Amino acid sequence: MDLWQHIIHPGDVWEHLSLYLKQGGHAAVQREVVRSLRLRTCDVVLDLGGGGHALAQLALYSGAVYGVAASAAAVSAATVRNRHDVARGRVHICRGAFPALPFPAAMFHVITAFEPAFWAGDLPACLREIRRLLRPGGQCVLVCADGRGSSGPVPAGQTLDGLNALADRAGLLCLPSLRLRGKGRVALHWLQPACDLCRPMPLDVFPAGWAQAC
Question: Which member of 14, 81, 167, 188 lies 3.0 to 4.6 Å from 52 by CB, making a disulfide possible if both were Cys?
Fold first, then answer.
């Protein structure tokens, strides 16, 4: 019997601990962002690639949550994690990808995206699809972590000015960004249909020290 295969090496312990801490940090960020959305029990929400924990948080406050993942494995994992909400019809999870998501126009009050890698394709087409799916008065928040640029991280390697320009061409208004501090460095980009009036930035709903304007 090879005893070495049963010994946990220090490097393995550190790897598992780092993964645990990283997941815990992401969960805390998702929790605070979902609270900031001020969801209503009648709201229909779409989450793009945020994983099972994001769906569970959104389901606590909204009426119905739809999750889209890019792979069958991600769909399966999110379904298992949210099996009780799925069984009750509160959470619906499917596989899909931009720029053609399997939903009718103007279906969602809120769209969230916690995974910038989900936006690695054609960003202008992604933004146009978001505009198609948002109801009048709706909002979308892009949560981009681990960026180090002075203007804050943005999806698909875009600059902040570039994101604003693409959003404008897609018929979306990109509100001033927020930066969260407390669980790593995270920037939030709020989008809404350009015909809507600007909402005030929800700084007051974040714990003290978490949020500041970029």
Answer: 81
pLDDT for 165-175, tens place per residue? 989 999 999 88
Confidence of residue 133 (pLDDT cuts 50, 70, 90): very high
Residues 57-81: tens digit of each pLDDT: 999 999 999 999 888 888 898 899 9
- The per-residue DSSP string of the chain comes to --GGGGPPPHHHHHHHHHHHHHHHHHHHHHHHHHHHT---TT-EEEEES--HHHHHHHHHHSSEEEEEESSHHHHHHHHHHTHHHHHTTSEEEEE--TT--SS-TT-EEEEEE--GGGG-S-HHHHHHHHHHHEEEEEEEEEEEES--STT---GGG--HHHHHHHHHHTTEEEPPPEEEESSSEEEEEEEEETTSPPPPP-GGGSPTTTEEE-
* CB proximity list for 35: less than 8 A, separation 6 or greater: 61, 205
